Amino acid sequence: xxxxxxxxxxxxxxxxxxxxxxxxxxxxxxxxxxxxxxxxxxxxxxxxxxxxxxxxxxxxxxxxxxxxxxxxxxxxxxxxxxxxxxxxxxxxxxxxxxxxxxxxxxxxxxxxxxxxx
Length: 117
Prior knowledge:
By secondary structure, the chain is mainly β. It contains no helices and 11 strands.
């Protein structure tokens, strides 16, 4: 089994920055791609960014391109989401996501990000 633990959320003013971290534990050898999703109140969970195992391939939602950067440090088994130029519409619970080579999907418990105007 794989557990994902997020950290780094909080309250920030519009235009500010936050960095989220996600540390997997357990059978981490199973994990291939990892990513970040977010869910605002009353809305569906949506993809924010994903990154391949080697960190070479990344993909972003149009709404965050140019402002957010996903990265991973496999030596530390950590995935990061650097969020700059935050907007009130970025307010949501952010979830770390991991996909195994076998197709299993793992989720963290989520971390709240609140951007005030």
